[in-house]
Amino acid sequence: MTVSIADYALIGDCETAALVSRSGSIDWLCWPRFDSDACFAALLGTPENGRWRIAPKAEKFHAGRKYRPGTLILETRFETDDGAVTLVDLMPLRNNTSDIVRLVVGESGRVTMCMELILRFGHGCIVPWVSRLPDRTLRAIAGPDMVVLTTPIDVHGENFKTVGEFTVSAGETVPFTLIYAPSHLAPPKPSDPHRALAITEKFWRGWTAKYKNDGPFADIVTRSLITLKALTYGPTGGIVAAPTTSLPEWIGGVRNWDYRFCWLRDATLTLLAFMNAGYYEEAAAWREWLLRAVAGRPEQAQIMYGIAGERRLVEWEVPWLPGFRNSGPVRIGNSAHSQLQLDVYGEVMDALHQARRGGIDQSDDGWAVQIAFLKHLEKAWTEPDESIWEVRSGRKHFTYSKVMAWVAFDRAIKSAEEYGLDGPLDRWRELRTFIHADVCRKGFDPQQGSFVQSYDSKELDASLLLLPVVGFLPPKDPRVIGTVEAIERRLMAGGFVQRYDTSRSDDGLPPGEGVFLACSFWLVDAYVMLGRLDDARVLFKRLAALCNDVGLLSEEYDPHSKQLLGNFPQAFSHVALVNSAFNLTRAAKPAEQRADHSAAAR
Q1: Where are the beta strands (DSSP E) in 14-67?
Q2: How much is the pTM?
Q3: Could you give the percent of the chain with pLDDT greater than 70?
Q4: pLDDT value, residue 43
């Protein structure tokens, strides 16, 4: 059977996360952090690269799954000719250790189950040394890593695997606990799995209760918010783009990137999504992570950082993993971290401005960092860059990058005016006016009646849909309307928006990729701002229907094969979903909050 990215569900503890297949197999997990070496890497290789499967022994069974409402606790129900069981999967929030708890609950009849644990450290290549401890406990060690398995069933080693067979009757529960710890410490004692379940459910239900479910999209918004919380690295507040690496943007293609890092580009929309949902603590933590990450010399600012703010994200290829459905190479690290992408300066300035407006406490250091950013940007904005899409073919004068430079000065001016902050306002106003005129002169093609991807180009780019959203031009400006219409004509594929035409692009990579889901949500937002509400609702519902059976979205979608593509689940897709839902259903719309056309300079 061909495996699909949509076959997976997410569990996590706000420090790392695992992907669980429909058949009860954990095929991806990095311990103890999102960016650690994988313990289970079957997703990008074979079962021999690490997985943990619990499933009926019967050759034929039916499996269905769901999350417990308002939680990240996954329930997979297996039905066989002999009866039914439910596999409950969770990762409790940490109390000094990182655990996976799996409970096999008998529902009816008597079902024989099989357990197979294949632990591999070092991204699926290092076989650990396994020894038996008292109390039916196994310990696996390799170098700095240790994993301890505790279960009441009899298990044994077989071909470098740990396997066991057991039977569950109605009313019975068989628990499994897998714990990670550094190998130089004593083996950790397992927590009570039933108590862990109760505490975990209480946490998630309490967290989701802060969001007041309203509107027709409440369920998918709630699931998206839970996913964003799960992708938050609790100790620092950073939010990873995805918990995976190298899930392909095209099956068999080479556009496979490591997304287990935090992108500055996601800052403003993530902040607005959390604040508008009532999650000010998460928004404040994200803002603080942002300030810590960019602290230092402004010219050394990066487009992405590690989850604690690490800067060195060296990219290398893993030769022993063939990749998801043989889509190689598998990459660890991301060399785009060293690219120049000017839009991130505007993103940082916009995020901190929106945080002020949202009432999140600001520090004097935060404003000092922003002034230093702008001093650097006064000269840097004229340089070509690699753009929002991180092209690997060389730098150009990308239109959206220049627009976001305008945003940086615009937000600084507004912050200074609204909150009495000191700064060289006259110089900023002059630059804001100059950049605006420069973009309108060089980034707009009168023949097409549309803005274009880069200066003096004829190509289109989905990022241009954000021009009214960031407040660069009013939504009813003929140039905005013309740009939206041009994108509808030339960048639509199967009813969704491509980021740009890779078949015509010189981005340094072979053509072929799915449609970026965030881009289609941007079109929803543009429709809302243009007053095309019926079009916005139709497209939003089409996008929402792409969520898999447990409400998760990846980065991309292939309209032809009708499958999710790219790293999964993707934070930015869920951020875009939340904001588009709010734009459609709320009087206070994120797009209008961000644009603030009434005060924008023209």
Answers
A1: 17-21, 25-30, 38-40, 51-56, 62-67
A2: 0.96
A3: 98
A4: 97
Q: What is the mean pLDDT of residues 333-352?
A: 92
Residues 6+ apart with CB under 8 A from 203: 93
Task: For 347-377, write each residue's pLDDT tens digit.
Answer: 999 999 999 999 987 777 789 989 999 999 9
d(CA 301, CA 404): 15
Residue 482, class by beta-carbon neighbours within 10 Å (0-12 exposed, 13-18 middle, 19+ buried)? middle
Concatenate the DSSP letters of all residues of 251-304 into one string: TT-S---B--SEEGGGHHHHHHHHHHHT-HHHHHHHHHHHHHHH-S-GGG--SE
Alpha-carbon separation of residue 341 from 37, 306, 374, 387 (angstroms) = 28, 17, 15, 5
Lookup: tokens for 511 = 């053509």
The CA-to-CA distance between both ends of the chain, in Å, stands at 57
Per-residue pLDDT tens for 312-332?
A: 999 999 999 999 999 999 999
Alpha carbon 58 to its chain's center = 36
Ramachandran region of residue 50, left (φ > 0), alpha (ψ -120 to 50) or beta?
Answer: left
Reference 240, options 590, 567, 578; nearest CA is: 567
201 vs 21: CA distance, rounded Å: 21
Please say if the pLDDT value at position 602 is more than 90. Answer: no
Is the predicted pLDDT of residue 234 greater than 90, yes or no? Answer: yes
What does each C-alpha distance from 179 to 16, 75, 141 come to in angstroms?
13, 20, 12
- Are 287 and 246 in contact by the 8 Å Cβ rule? The answer is no
Sign of the dihedral defined by the CA atoms of residues 75, 327, 554, 287, in that order: positive
